[in-house]
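the three lines:
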Amino acid sequence: MPELPEVETTRRGIAPFVTGHTISGVVLRNRRLRWPVPRELSGTLAGQIVESVSRRGKYLILNTRHGGLILHLGMSGSLRVVRAATPPGKFDHVDIVLDNGEALRLRDPRRFGALLWSPEPARHRLLKDLGPEPLSGDFSGDYLYEKSRGRKRAIKEFLMDSHVVAGIGNIYANESLFLAGIRPTRPAGKISRERYRALGRAVRAVLERAIRAGGTTLRDFQQSDGRPGYFSRRLRVYGRAGERCVKCGSAIRRVTMGARSAYFCPRCQH
DNA sequence: CTCCGATCCTGATGGC
DNA sequence: TGCCATCAGGATCGGA
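prediction for all of em together
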């Protein structure tokens, strides 16, 4: 659900409405997310100015002079900018209220999301050990190759490990592997440098295209203006078990890997 | 260090 | 029509 492209889409959507504004308080309707939202959050944030909105992997950070509000959308979270007086829905758990009468509203039906304050977000336990940003210069096929030596786990699980590279979830792991022609079940440590270079390029291409399309909407995700993400119609293998491969016409297969679905073309991916 | 399974939650879906 | 079981899935945690 919200993976890197969806979180980046959300970041771009909300940044113009919150940057430069002062937070007047926080309304906590339900504190039970992935970790309990701190009771004192409103007191901590009141009076602080949002200087910027940044992203690290799938985390969003509202940066102020004194630290940052770390936000994770989990599997079903979304953020909207609304008038603070707008009646909340059943799953609108938190409002970050701004001094201009608007509020950043977190909706999260499944409550796998997170909302935490840190005086130094980059050093927070959730962020400090994340792998490189896949769209930065720190990430490359060569990096993946080096990092994967001696690893026995499947390439798809390796690619979805946020400590290897940040922000890639099930959808984009499947799509990237299809584009690179690599079968998701192949052990990560047994893939050649050349093929990792193709994978590095594929990861970048897929993420960039998805960001341009405003992310992927399956069920829950919506852009911060309420529109769906339009990458859904560009998915090549994800969710297409039994359908024809766009390259060769073979039937796309689905296998279960550790409680997750992997989709691949048996003819194009080895 | 590496890997694997359990875990949190609720809407959608399919079988009967 | 309605009930029930199953599934989806990010990332952490604990145990092997």
